[in-house]
Amino acid sequence: MAMKLNINGKQVSVAAEPGTPLLWVLRDELDMTGTKFGCGVASCGACTVHVDGEPVRSCSTYVDDLEGTEITTIEGVNGPAAQAVQTAWREMDVVQCGYCQSGQIMSAVNLLATNAKPTDQDIDDAMAGNACRCATYHRIRAAIHRASDIMEA
User: Which terms does the record give in the GO molecular function aspect (predicted)?
Assistant: First the structure.
């Protein structure tokens, strides 16, 4: 089934069966491999993208539900919050293995876009659905605080 999706500000035509997860369309059909497959049941957050500005798990979000929405992936995320998060991630040396980081970044960008000065609890709540096997949670939290400071400057 052919459908048109708005991904990272561009209209793309995709051929996918109803019930196909967005993750597989991104990775297999569009060769956008920044969004990762982690668990396949929306528990780990590695596949997080934004749909109409909200973080969603692309492994359990079906393409046939997305016509008329704006989808943003790690390849297309931009704006002040995204730039601050990317800068802070590098400064704070957040990444260890890196597998979960695209999902972590997408969740952090959403948090800072909606709450420019989050508390530790705000961060923990917003990031709760993102698992990191390397346990870099303390660096992720510190980097989100740093990104907040960058945005404030």
Answer: 2 iron, 2 sulfur cluster binding; metal ion binding; oxidoreductase activity
